[in-house]
């Protein structure tokens, strides 16, 4: 199966007030087949709209070109004012590799897009980040220095000749900056001050570039320069962070506006906490924050775990609870409600039309199982029992971490609870995978078989689907066996008041493994490769034997604890 090739495009247009013009631009994007518009985030005071869309590279580049063309026709930079730095009607247009595309490939797509904009629209175009042709143009701030107001003079400088298009000032459209970069999170932190100077001081404290070194007075002193005449910089505390301070009349307070260019280096939660520390040192308080555009799911989950651990609490909870914790901790809903379905990229991209068993209520799942269709059946129910067994182990770990007098053991139990959540998630995935595997066998049998070639193709498809249907319950057995480690630890060392919960978890996991083993046996009967079939059954038997020993050991010990 070919891997899906996806890139994201996040153009910033210099218009945040006229929604009709913004709609005309986004209509151009949506006119391209295969492109999904994910987010439109206008700002009145910045007078800027951040648009996010995703799709296959060729479709995304076409949509980006159409959007740039429309913006050049309907936006007039000569009349533009706003708090955000900008250089053109389409200020920046970065391409971000999402799936199946390397950064090098994304850079080539960006350069191709830049060339087309320059040639067909006769606009000056600069390439930045990974698409840059020279080092000084990698940094967006270098290219945008002087902004729109200084663009005419910049274009007259041979050192700043555009990478594509004419070195001619277009008063209406300005210039376009196109690039390829890693996923960037635009994140603003709200302050309880209206002072831009104080906001900028905090921004300079944290941003990687820092502030200019001065002689004597750090504010009014003479700027210290190196041998080449460049200002000597005092670095800020956060790597891969760009930041400025500004005042937003719409909100009535100042913000620290940050671009987190590598959230693997500086995650959102670390940036937020560092701004809190630096603000407090300057007598300013952080009141909340604002996410501009989208954010990856893992960034929100990591933030939730971070803030729970700060409270010495287990992060062995659902994704939903982790996200709620992150939102509450960073005040992401201070300005408007934070809706995960609209702000988390994986949630937007998931196929909501596809009905999943694990998304049903318990009652619905039970009734769906009892219906007159073979799937979901024993395999899915077995995986569900394994997930429930893991959930009971996770519950005991979480309860143990809260037990009075055990405060010094919270990290121990938190680690077990977080492992339990990973086990639960994998087994829940297998609930649906088992049903999908069975349905794939049915699809294979429906293939035509009139010609010899069709018969050969159909036979191969049936064999492959049958093998997969045998491997899924075997995987259920393997994953469930791991849960015994959690349950053994919790029944031995966990909260003694919850020992029977752990024991019920053991019984659920044992039933899961026995049930999955039965499914392995019945599914391999359909395999033509009998040697392969025998090997799968032998592998499953080893797991079943190990589970039997662990079940007997744990239940015997629990029974002794319960003896009257």
The overall average pLDDT, rounded, is 94
Contiguous uncertain segments of 5+ residues: none
Multimeric state: single chain
The number of helical segments is 17
The percent range for strand residues is: 5-15%
The CATH class of the largest domain, by name, is Mainly Alpha
CATH fold-level topology of the largest domain:
Four Helix Bundle (Hemerythrin (Met), subunit A)
Summarize this structure briefly.
This protein has 564 residues and is of the alpha+beta class.
Secondary structure: elements and pairs:
Layout: E1 6-9, E2 12-13, H1 19-30, E3 35-43, E4 48-55, H2 57-74, E5 90-99, H3 103-121, E6 125-129, H4 140-144, H5 151-155, E7 176-180, E8 185-191, H6 196-206, E9 211-212, E10 233-234, E11 241-248, E12 253-260, H7 268-281, E13 286-292, H8 297-310, H9 319-330, H10 340-343, H11 345-349, H12 362-370, H13 378-402, H14 410-445, H15 452-493, H16 499-524, H17 530-562
Parallel strand pairs: 5-7, 6-7
Antiparallel strand pairs: 1-4, 1-5, 2-4, 2-5, 3-4, 8-12, 8-13, 9-10, 11-12
Characterization of the model:
With 564 residues, this protein is an alpha+beta fold. The protein has three domains: 6-180, 2-Layer Sandwich (Formiminotransferase-cyclodeaminase, Chain B, domain 1); 185-331 and 339-349, 2-Layer Sandwich (Alpha-Beta Plaits), CATH 3.30.70; 359-562, Four Helix Bundle (Hemerythrin (Met), subunit A), CATH 1.20.120.680. The chain contains 17 helices and 13 strands. Strands 1, 2, 3, 4, 5, 6 and 7 form a seven-stranded mixed beta sheet that branches. A four-stranded antiparallel beta sheet has the order 11-12-8-13. β3 (35-43) and β4 form a beta hairpin. α13 (378-402) packs antiparallel against α16 (499-524) and α16 (499-524) runs antiparallel to α17.
């Amino acid at each position: 199966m070919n891997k899906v090739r996806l890139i994201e495009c996040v153009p910033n247009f210099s218009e945040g007030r006229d929604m009709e013009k913004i709609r005309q631009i986004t209509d151009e994007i949506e006119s391209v087949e295969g492109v999904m518009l994910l987010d439109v985030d206008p700002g009145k005071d910045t007078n800027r709209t951040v648009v996010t869309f995703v799709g296959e590279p060729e479709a995304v580049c076409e949509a980006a070109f159409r959007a740039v063309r429309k913006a050049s026709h309907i936006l007039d930079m000569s009349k533009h004012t706003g708090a955000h730095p900008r250089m053109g009607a389409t200020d920046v247009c970065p391409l971000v590799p999402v799936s199946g595309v390397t950064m090098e490939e994304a850079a080539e797509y960006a350069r191709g897009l830049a060339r087309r904009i320059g040639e067909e629209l006769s606009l000056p175009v600069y390439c930045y980040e990974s698409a840059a042709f020279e080092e000084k143009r990698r940094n967006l701030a270098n290219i945008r220095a002087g902004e729109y107001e200084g663009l005419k003079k910049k274009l007259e400088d041979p050192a700043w000749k555009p990478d594509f298009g004419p070195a001619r000032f277009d008063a209406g459209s300005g210039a376009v900056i196109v690039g390829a970069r890693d996923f960037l999170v635009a994140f603003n932190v709200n302050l309880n001050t209206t002072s831009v100077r104080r906001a900028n001081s905090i921004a300079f404290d944290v941003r990687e570039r820092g502030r200019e070194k001065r002689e004597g007075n750090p504010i009014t002193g003479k700027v210290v320069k190196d041998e080449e005449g460049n200002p000597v910089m005092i670095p800020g505390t956060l790597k891969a962070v760009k930041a400025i301070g500004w005042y937003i009349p719409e909100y009535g307070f100042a913000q620290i506006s940050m671009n987190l260019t590598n959230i693997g280096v500086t995650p959102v939660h670390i940036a937020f906490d560092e701004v809190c520390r630096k603000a407090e040192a300057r007598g300013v308080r952080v009141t909340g924050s604002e996410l501009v555009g989208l954010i990856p799911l893992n960034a929100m989950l990591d933030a939730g775990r971070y803030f729970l651990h700060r409270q010495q609490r287990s992060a062995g909870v659902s994704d939903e609870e982790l996200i709620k914790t992150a939102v509450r901790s960073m005040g992401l809903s201070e300005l408007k409600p934070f809706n995960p379905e609209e702000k988390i990229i994986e949630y937007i991209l998931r196929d909501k039309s596809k009905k999943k068993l694990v998304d049903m209520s318990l009652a619905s799942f039970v009734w769906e199982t009892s219906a007159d269709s073979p799937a979901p059946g024993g395999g899915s129910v077995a995986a569900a029992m394994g997930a429930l067994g893991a959930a009971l182990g996770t519950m005991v770990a979480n309860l143990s971490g809260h037990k009075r007098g055990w405060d010094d053991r919270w990290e121990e139990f938190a680690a077990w609870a977080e492992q339990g959540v990973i086990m639960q998630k994998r087994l829940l995935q297998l609930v649906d995978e088992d049903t999908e595997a069975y349905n794939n066998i049915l699809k294979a049998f429906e293939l035509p078989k009139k010609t010899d070639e069709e018969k050969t193709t159909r036979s191969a498809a049936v064999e492959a689907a049958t093998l997969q249907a045998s491997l899924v319950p075997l995987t259920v057995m393997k994953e469930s066996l791991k849960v015994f480690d959690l349950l053994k630890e919790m029944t031995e060392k966990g909260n003694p008041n919850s020992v029977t919960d752990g024991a019920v978890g053991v019984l659920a996991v044992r039933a899961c493994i026995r049930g999955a083993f039965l499914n392995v046996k019945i599914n391999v009967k359909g395999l033509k490769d009998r040697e392969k079939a025998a090997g799968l059954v032998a592998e499953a038997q080893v797991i079943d034997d190990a589970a039997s020993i662990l079940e007997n050991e744990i239940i015997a010990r629990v029974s002794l604890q319960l003896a009257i």
